[in-house]
């Protein structure tokens, strides 16, 4: 039972991390970012490349490298394309721009790396175990859980405890008044996009340590991210974490009874939650 | 301190302001009155950098003024409807204005001006009364340490006692040397608080002069555009 709980929480924390970046996009930029899944894949492939390189890097540097690389690309994409699309009243314009960017990233990965599945070789970490309280826990899931927890803690501190976070929330509430107060709104947008892309890449690295990824993995990841964000509440960081943990637990418990259909139960749970909301008048 | 010459503003093809010239001096209020749609709020929005399409010349402290740099040059707006940041606490709403421009309006000074805000510093705007929200909006603008304060309908929807409190605070602000451009539907109140008054009618100046003694009745012709 404890093992199931541990696995569920680990997977759930990952799902929460996948959703966190998308929640920033929804809640602060007000953009439905269809390229979010591609940043998860991009993070995974950057990590694979860094580990497979001549000078293999330790895991913290791999995580930092993937985060920084994706964050830079996310900020550039925001500044060059999405910010301009956001100037249109119709939110479909920005959404379609991110769709186009997603196609470009996916095909770029396909052209340069091929369609093969790749995993992140973490060496002995994959098999290492730690005994605690009479239970044996895998070190890799523990590391995953720890990194996800640290990322959420830092994100919450950044948004709710810093001057930057205050400006981010002000821009989210009223961008015109924030600009009038002297806040550079486009700069805040670019930094939020960087943070979102970086978190996606971080999730991608952690996913690649558990399972193989291909250039086409982004769509499946995006689906989970959407479910987590919609279930957790758009723009709510704590809600996203809770929703991710819940869906992770559902998947792991369901796999106990039906080994090949855990993900199906995740989608069914999401659907049932939406039905429940609709019946109680809380769908909007 | 702030001088406007021949200001015109446009919403697309529609001209919202035409040839508006006025001046606001340090430590004084200038009342801006007129019927709905006369262009009062448009002028304040223009000065705050919220109206991209405008013509004319603006000079602040002897130098040309670009409204896109309103906060840096020391022009702050208290907008109609307050437009506070809903997800920020009272204290955070005020702190967002403090962006490095030096001046007397620290958090402590603003809490001294509006003591009730000190008690409500952790509250969200939605949990405050209308009067308290208006105090936050004024404090947020003052936190930028402006030279010119633009007040758009700061008494709208407030109880008379609260209006008196807000205007008493505004008198303290003027005493610090701030220039105030004041829009208020209550002509008598706006003129009582001000040295000069400008009445707008369909985007043009229909009356301009000393505010002393001006009443809603004496301004009727300029206000409605009919013969007195």
Rg calculated over all Cα atoms of chain A: 19 Å
What percentage of the residues of chain B does DSSP assign to strands (E)?
Answer: 25-35%
H/E element sequence of chain B? EEEHEEHEHHHHEHEHEEH
Oligomer: heterodimer
Gross geometry of chain A: globular
Index terms:
heterodimer, A: 284 residues, mainly alpha, two-stranded antiparallel ribbon, 2 strands, 76% helix, B: 228 residues, alpha/beta, 6-stranded mixed beta sheet, 4-stranded antiparallel beta sheet, 9 helices, globular
List the helices and strands and how they pair.
The complex is a heterodimer of chains A (284) and B (228).
Chain A: H1 2-29, H2 36-52, H3 59-86, H4 91-113, E1 129-132, E2 135-138, H5 139-161, H6 163-173, H7 175-180, H8 185-210, H9 217-232, H10 237-257, H11 262-279
Antiparallel strand pairs in A: 1-2
Chain B: E1 2-11, E2 14-24, E3 29-34, H1 40-47, E4 54-60, E5 63-64, H2 70-73, E6 75-78, H3 90-95, H4 107-113, H5 115-119, H6 130-142, E7 148-152, H7 160-175, E8 179-183, H8 187-193, E9 196-201, E10 204-210, H9 220-224
Parallel strand pairs in B: 3-8, 3-9, 6-7, 7-8
Antiparallel strand pairs in B: 1-2, 1-4, 4-5, 9-10
Description:
The complex is a heterodimer of chains A (284) and B (228). Chain A has 284 residues and is mostly helical. Helices cover 76% and strands 3% of the residues of chain A. Chain A has eleven helices and two strands. In chain A, strands 1-2 form a two-stranded antiparallel ribbon. In chain A, strand 1 and strand 2 (135-138) form a beta hairpin. The mean pLDDT of chain A is 91. With 228 residues, chain B is an alpha/beta fold. In chain B, a hairpin with a 2-residue loop joins strand 4 and strand 5. The model of chain B has no long low-confidence stretch (mean pLDDT 93). The longest helix of chain B is centred in the C-terminal third of the chain and has 16 residues, at 160-175. In chain B, strands 6-7-8-3-9-10 form a six-stranded mixed beta sheet, sandwiched between helices. The chains are: A mainly alpha (284), B alpha/beta (228). At the A-B interface, helix 6 and helix 7 of A face helix 2 of B.
């Amino acid at each position: 039972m404890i093992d199931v709980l541990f696995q569920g929480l680990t997977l759930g924390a990952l799902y929460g991390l996948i959703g966190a970046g998308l929640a920033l996009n929804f809640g602060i930029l007000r953009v439905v970012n269809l390229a979010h899944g591609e940043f998860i894949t991009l993070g995974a492939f950057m990590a694979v490349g860094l580990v497979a390189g001549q000078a293999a890097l330790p895991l913290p540097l791999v995580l930092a490298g993937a985060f920084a690389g994706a964050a830079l690309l996310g900020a550039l994409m925001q500044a060059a394309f999405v910010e301009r699309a956001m100037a249109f009243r119709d939110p479909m314009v920005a959404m379609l721009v991110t769709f186009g960017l997603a196609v470009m990233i996916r095909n770029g990965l396909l052209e340069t790396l091929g369609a093969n599945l790749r995993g992140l070789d973490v060496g002995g970490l994959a098999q290492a175990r730690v005994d605690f309280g009479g239970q044996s826990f895998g070190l890799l899931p523990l590391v995953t859980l720890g990194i996800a927890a640290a990322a959420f803690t830092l994100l919450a501190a950044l948004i709710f405890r810093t001057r930057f976070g205050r400006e981010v929330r002000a821009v989210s509430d009223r961008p015109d008044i924030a600009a009038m107060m002297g806040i550079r709104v486009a700069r805040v947008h670019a930094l939020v996009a960087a943070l979102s892309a970086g978190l996606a890449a971080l999730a991608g690295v952690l996913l690649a340590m558990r399972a193989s990824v291909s250039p086409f993995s982004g769509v499946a990841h995006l689906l989970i991210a959407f479910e987590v964000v919609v279930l957790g509440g758009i723009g709510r960081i704590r809600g996203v974490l809770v929703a991710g943990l819940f869906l992770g637990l559902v998947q792991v418990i369901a796999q106990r009874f039906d080994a090949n259909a855990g993900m199906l139960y995740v989608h069914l749970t999401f659907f049932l939650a939406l039905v429940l909301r609709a019946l109680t008048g809380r769908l909007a | 301190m702030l001088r406007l010459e021949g200001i015109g503003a446009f919403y697309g093809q529609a001209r919202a302001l035409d040839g508006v010239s006025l001046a606001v001096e340090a430590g004084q209020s200038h009342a801006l009155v007129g019927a709905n749609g006369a262009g009062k709020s448009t002028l304040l929005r223009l000065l705050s950098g919220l109206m991209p399409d405008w013509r004319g010349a603006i000079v602040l402290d002897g130098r040309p003024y670009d409204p896109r740099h309103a906060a840096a040059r020391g022009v702050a707006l208290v907008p109609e409807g307050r437009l506070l940041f809903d997800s920020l606490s009272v204290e955070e709403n005020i702190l967002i204005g403090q962006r490095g421009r030096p001046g007397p309006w620290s958090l402590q000074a603003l809490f001294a001006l509006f003591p009730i805000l000190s008690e409500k510093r952790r509250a969200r705007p939605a949990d405050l009364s209308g009067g308290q929200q208006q105090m936050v909006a004024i404090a947020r603008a003052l936190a930028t340490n402006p030279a010119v304060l633009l007040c758009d309908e700061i008494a709208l929807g407030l109880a008379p006692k609260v209006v008196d409190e807000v205007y008493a605070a505004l008198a303290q602000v003027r005493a610090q040397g701030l220039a105030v451009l004041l829009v208020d539907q209550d002509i008598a109140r706006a003129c009582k608080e001000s040295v000069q008054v400008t009445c707008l009618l369909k985007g043009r100046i229909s009356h301009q002069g000393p505010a002393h003694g001006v009443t809603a009745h004496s301004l009727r012709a300029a206000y409605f555009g009919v013969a007195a």
